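Notes for week 9. Today we move from apo structures to complexes. The key idea is that a small molecule is not decoration. When we ask for a structure prediction with zinc ion present, the ligand SMILES becomes part of the input, just like the chain. The input block below holds both the sequence and the ligand string. Read it once before you look at the output, and try to guess where the molecule might sit.
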Amino acid sequence: MYLIGGGRLITHDSSRPYIENGAVSVDGSSIVKVGTFEELSAEFPNSEFIDARGGIIMPGLINAHTHFYSYLGRGFAFPDYAPTTPYEALRDRSWKLDRNLSFYDCFYAAYAGALESIRCGVTTVFDHHAASGCGSGTLMAILGAVDECGLRACLSYEVSQRCGYKACCEGIVENEDFINYCESTPHERIKAMFGLHAPYTLTDFDFKDCVDRNGGRTGFHIHVSEISDDPCICMHAYGQRSVERLLTNDILGDKTIAAHCVHVTPREMDILAESGTFVVNNPQSNLSNAVGCSPVFEMLKHGIPVCLGTDGFTSDMLESAKSFICAQRSANSLPGSGVNEAAKLLFENNRLLASRYFDNGIGLLREGSPADIIILDHKPYAPIDESNYAGHLFFGANGHDCTMTMVGGRILMRDKKLLTVKEDKLRACLADSIAELWKKIKDRDDKPYEWSNPITSYR
Ligand SMILES: [Zn+2]
């Protein structure tokens, strides 16, 4: 048993959201009790004590949308080329990276992403993978890496026509195989979704095939209207905007993730709200790719459960929350807004999404919840209580303040020391893997694949 105490406790549990000198008791994979340090240290005197040293004890953070493979692209730049539109940024950077990945790249990228997440106090990740040049089995490779690191993850593969029909079919089978595996071999920390790239790179026939093979077993994870080309191409080719097409093709629902939703109409917001679909905002990625600012305040007013992700830009959810606040304040000309909304996304809606796939109570410090707990070495000078802790975290802390990360009662990092993987060994493997990948991207005559779908005629 562990007793984690000696700090300020944030529980996100509405019955007792904040305890000034709090503690949490852990037995096995679950939380046994939450209370004051005095109460719990008297009740559990023989537990191993984990001292927060005046910092903040809180539930592990949840990343609702990321791509582990994008960690291999950090620092990469073409010598004589820079994209000039959001579409070019995706086509010539992100897609070029993912279609050149080797099987080992996928494996090591998942290790790197998992370790960085653990370092930033992220205990649950929804990963959206793509590697069209690898053939089958990459989701199993990611499972192996993530499982060894001890992270909690929901994995999926981006089905898309953007690398051709064969790769699209392989992507469908990759999802189906992985969902079958997760059904036959239940794992407490690893779950499956059915991944789709985006409406503008998928035909209605593809959607039908995916829906049939999924058979209602899990939700879909798809990019939606990240760039304005998406709804324009859908209108041009199918007479419906992106979200309308997803409704027609049975993709939406209360286990489905629609990442981005930057270019959506009020009618599409109604559809998303009525279907209970989760939208995931990725502020730094959207700013970086110059795709526009998602109308999150409007979507929240429509009753859409909007979550927060990083889209591979970072693993740090507190940095993502900061960027969300700044982007929304700027786009809405509302300098006093954003903190309550960021708290709703990160602490409430991400938890709701995670509870669709993992044990109920995830993301809360309360009796019976999974013991996903972090300690932040953050000691604010100004007063902190249940009314303002979100503002303290968003403006005063970041993920690298995390000193301890626990998932399901297992300590993955303690006093900033990673316990589950030998990082030096990983670095050596990654260095070779990334050098080879960058060489392929730079050297070979790797022209973008122009798939035989409506984008060619649209352009
Ligand atoms: Zn993404």
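The first strand starts at residue 2 and ends at 10.
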